[in-house]
Amino acid sequence: MAINVYFVRHGQTYLNLYNRMQGWADGPLTPKGQEDAKRVGRALAPIQFDYVFCSDLARTVSTTRFLLAEHPGNNPEPITEPAFREEFFGYFEGEDGQHFADFLGGPEGYHSFAEMVAGWGPDKLKDKIAAADNYGTAEDHVAFWKRVDKGFDRLRALPDGSEVLVVSHGATIRSIVQRYSDAYDPGDSPRNGSITKLTLDKNNTTVDFYNKLELPE
């Protein structure tokens, strides 16, 4: 037996639209973001969820609400879980994304977040961001995984055969996928309202698919 976990990235926010760094900082969903959430709720219609989790940030809570309103199942009440928050960018929260990429990655020829992730990998990028934060508040990869692993411990404790929805964030989902699979381009960020499926058993984590707008046939 195993636990099926469907990770969904929240819908588009205004900070996404304006290409701003958005970790623990929070922007409201745009109209497109609300539609992202509704669409993925319909896309997940074949799955009856036994448990629904979302990070405790407002954009994931809102996404979960819109998603479940469009999902035909008799779904359980969502549980907020801070372990599934986005990576914390510390001093760089709200920074212009292009400016930040030029600042941090430019000296090594990287001029976008995707290029930095592809070149350094998610964990090395976390460490570089943390090292550049003079306030010492940004998460390095050790702090990030200490937090996220608590969420995975909670998932693994669920009954065998559970169908689980987790509404989370782009960098978090990408980091999880890169940790457990080398089959995906690290520079490929999950789209707003995309679905990524993992299968968990007692000892293994398998990435079944990544960054899909519909369930694969």
From TrEMBL:
Positions with a binding annotation for substrate: 9-16, 59
GO molecular function: fructose-2,6-bisphosphate 2-phosphatase activity
Cited Gene3D superfamilies: Phosphoglycerate mutase-like
Origin superkingdom: Bacteria
InterPro entries: His_Pase_superF_clade-1 (IPR013078), His_PPase_superfam (IPR029033), Phosphoglycerate_Mutase (IPR051695)
Keyword annotations of the record: Hydrolase
One GO biological process term: regulation of pentose-phosphate shunt
Example of a GO cellular component annotation carried by this entry: cytosol
Active site feature: 10, 86
Official protein name in the record: Histidine phosphatase family protein
Organism, as annotated: Limosilactobacillus albertensis
